[in-house]
């Protein structure tokens, strides 16, 4: 397992800025003053045990969940104060790759990929749509799957098609929720390489939520670890794990020794 070898150039531009974010469901205080930023061109990995609020954080970033308090600015837009139309516009620039790939089973791969484009971009010619589909499939290395049904694909292929579909709208920011969950180690490496390719070839800025430390190490320019409602550790992979903190060490040993 290698640390990410090639660091793409990152600008000093902040594309996501979160300050003092609080989210509670009744008595369950999930996020208790979260601060986080994402720089343009950066891959940021968010680690944390189940139920620590990683998905809640993503939902707040895309405006699907209103926080109790805090500031959330995405691509210069204040998400908390945005209305539905403004959020719809923002979501065109923020691609969300779901844990279960969320493909439509009754549509071919081509139709799945066309769907976000036809729905969101008007007046595209057939040739433009075909070119965009081919480009996205090429990016994920699955051009040959264009006429297949999702049920004919492996789990890893479905994940890649899910990512290709998210890429159709050329998002500036990618949010990956558990991209390698349930995949064998070799397929995981394919997905990790794809996430790095998306960063390098598309210049995307990404947040990758994962429990998979190999994934964290291979894709993360920076790693942030969520504990007790806050990011308790942030830095490179090696910096985050260079601590005697039992909670951090347990997380590490569970991944690599069990
Ligand atoms: N809509 C909701 N209503 C009530 N509680 C919720 C809601 N959404 C999330 N929660 C609670 O918030 C906490 C964090 O959930 P979240 O899904 O963000 O965890 P997670 O870190 O993504 O976990 P996992 O790694 O298992 O996916 C959990 O206790 C969950 O039950």
TrEMBL record:
Give UniProt keywords alphabetically: ATP-binding, Nucleotide-binding, Transport
The family database entries (SUPFAM superfamilies) matched by this protein are listed as: P-loop containing nucleoside triphosphate hydrolases
CDD domains in the cross-refs: ABC_Org_Solvent_Resistant
Could you tell me which residue ranges the ABC transporter domain spans? 16-253
State if Transport is listed as a keyword: yes
As one GO molecular function, the record gives: ATP hydrolysis activity
Top-rank taxon = Bacteria
Q: What is this protein called?
A: ABC transporter ATP-binding protein
What organism does this protein naturally occur in? Answer: Fibrella rubiginis
């Amino acid at each position: 397992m290698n640390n990410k070898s090639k660091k793409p150039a990152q600008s000093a531009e902040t594309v996501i800025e979160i300050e003092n974010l609080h989210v509670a469901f009744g008595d369950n205080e999930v996020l208790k003053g979260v601060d986080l930023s994402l720089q343009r061109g950066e891959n940021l990995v968010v680690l944390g045990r189940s139920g620590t609020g990683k998905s809640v954080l993503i939902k707040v970033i895309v405006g699907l969940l209103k926080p109790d308090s805090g500031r959330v600015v995405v691509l210069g837009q204040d998400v908390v104060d945005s209305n539905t139309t403004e959020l719809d516009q923002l979501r065109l620039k923020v691609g969300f790759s779901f844990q279960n790939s969320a493909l439509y089973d009754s549509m071919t791969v081509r139709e799945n990929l066309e769907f976000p484009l036809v729905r969101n971009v008007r007046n595209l010619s057939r040739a433009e749509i075909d070119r965009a589909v081919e480009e996205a499939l090429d990016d994920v290395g699955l051009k040959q799957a264009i006429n297949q049904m999702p049920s004919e694909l492996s789990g890893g292929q479905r994940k890649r098609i899910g990512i290709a579909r998210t890429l159709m709208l050329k998002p500036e920011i990618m949010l990956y929720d558990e991209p390698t969950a349930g995949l064998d180690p070799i397929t995981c490496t394919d997905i990790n390489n794809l996430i790095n390719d998306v960063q390098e070839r598309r210049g995307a800025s990404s947040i990758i939520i994962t429990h998979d430390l190999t994934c964290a190490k291979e894709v993360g320019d920076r790693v942030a670890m969520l504990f007790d409602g806050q990011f308790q550790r942030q830095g490179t992979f090696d910096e985050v794990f260079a601590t005697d903190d039992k909670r951090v060490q347990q997380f590490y040993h569970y991944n690599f020794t069990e």
